[in-house]
Amino acid sequence: MRATVVVPVLKSRSRGGQSESASTRTPESRLEEATGLAQAIDLDVVNGQIVPVNDPRPATLLGTGKIEEIKALLDERDSGLVIVDHPLTPVQQRNLEKEWNAKVIDRTGLILEIFGRRASTKEGTLQVDLAHLNYQKGRLVRSWTHLERQRGGGGFMGGPGETQIEADRRMLQDRIIKLERELEQVVRTRQLHRAKRRKVPHPIVALVGYTNAGKSTLFNRITGAGVLAEDMLFATLDPTLRRMKLPHGRTVILSDTVGFISDLPTHLVAAFRATLEEVLEADLILHVRDMSDADNQAQSSDVMRILNDLGIDEAEAEKRLIEVWNKIDRLEPEVHDTMVQKSAGASNVVAVSAVSGEGVDTLMEEISRRLSGVMTVATIRLPVDKLALLPWLYDHAIVDSREDNEDGTITLDLRLSETEATELERRIGNGQKSSKEDWER
């Protein structure tokens, strides 16, 4: 379908009476992003236009002159769809469709359409359907009075019965309730999976970031997985978890989540909360940023705002978050070198290229260091009847040296966290404190 993208730039009045933009983003970057969103569902964008709006109209958002100008462009380019990169009220959407004689969708509707195309798991489909129905419920306007049904009864009991619009609202609400119940079951299943993972306490590392920041490419680079990774907004939607080994042998679980975006609709965040809870559960969060995008600072602010909405405040983010400055391979050599030096001097930043692999080893070392915390140095001698613990040790500790003794026992020099040291002591002693010859620190 041939589509036209319209980006309204609303002006807000400051206290001094000066007009200033209501958005922190440049209009050009908004237009580029909206065009990318449209192309992500195979729309043919034949025109993109930035429209300054000094006085938003309640009925149409845009002024009469601009509406007529866009109408002429639609006729000229045979465009049957208009994407307005701004929330529209149901009345504004209906009026614009009448004026332009074309289908009109706003930013929320476009994002929902993309999510509907991308969802592949049952959970993802349920989440998208729920968000779409909540959105659609507000789009039903009282315009179908000709579809009123006559109610039975005599005298004062007569008159119009249930209208079609009310029936539709009731059907939508019934469907929403059904989906919410199904999602509750999915949430319970996910919680059971988390509980199982806690019994095998591998740390969880979650990837977050603005859509198209390169999370899935980095995920594939680190884990060797085959997750879809394309230069496209919202290329992946459903979360993916994989085990991976850190440089010193420790196993962690890496989680790739849905990409964030500015002005993400509230009911979308609510619908995807079960998925995004993987981030809340994570021991470490990797915030992947596309440093080749001129708008990366604004994108970073959007991501941090959503994390804050999920319950991760700045103080907690400081302890649990690593900024991954991705796509440095796209930068000019001078900018590239400056950024690498700047990241090297920061305590929570690593510059990488998920495509070329540059900086990925440094990132893995930093993940290992951050997850290690306060390490306990230990020397243990595993008796013959405890050799089955060896795989657990290689998964949860850093083995510095190993000596196979003549009597069949094995002596190991280890580094491991306090939590894992306590668990190892429990496993060696079968819940009892082990003897000194088996456990030395």
From TrEMBL:
Instruction: Report keywords, A-Z.
Output: Coiled coil, Cytoplasm, GTP-binding, Magnesium, Metal-binding, Nucleotide-binding
The segment annotated Disordered runs over 1-31
Give the PANTHER family listed for this entry: GTP-BINDING PROTEIN 6-RELATED, GTP-BINDING PROTEIN HFLX
Cellular component per GO? cytoplasm
The family database entries (InterPro entries) matched by this protein are listed as: G_HFLX_dom (IPR030394), GTP-bd (IPR006073), GTP-bd_M (IPR032305), GTPase_HflX (IPR016496), GTPase_HflX_N (IPR025121), GTPase_HflX_N_sf (IPR042108), HflX_C (IPR045498), P-loop_NTPase (IPR027417)
Cite the binding residues for GTP: 209-216, 234-238, 256-259, 326-329
One Pfam family matching this protein: MMR_HSR1
Q: What does this protein do?
A: GTPase that associates with the 50S ribosomal subunit and may have a role during protein synthesis or ribosome biogenesis.
* Compartment(s): Cytoplasm
Would the keyword Magnesium turn up in this protein's UniProt record? Answer: yes
Which residues are listed for Mg(2+) binding in this entry?
S216, T236
Q: Which residues form the Hflx-type G domain?
A: 203-375
Specify residue ranges for compositional bias: Polar residues: 15-26
What organism is recorded for this protein? Answer: Rhizobium sophorae
Q: What is the lineage of its organism?
A: Bacteria, Pseudomonadati, Pseudomonadota, Alphaproteobacteria, Hyphomicrobiales
Q: List the cofactors.
A: Mg(2+)
The main location is cytoplasm
| Annotated GO MF terms | GTP binding; GTPase activity; metal ion binding; ribosome binding
Query: What is the protein name given in its UniProt record?
Result: GTPase HflX
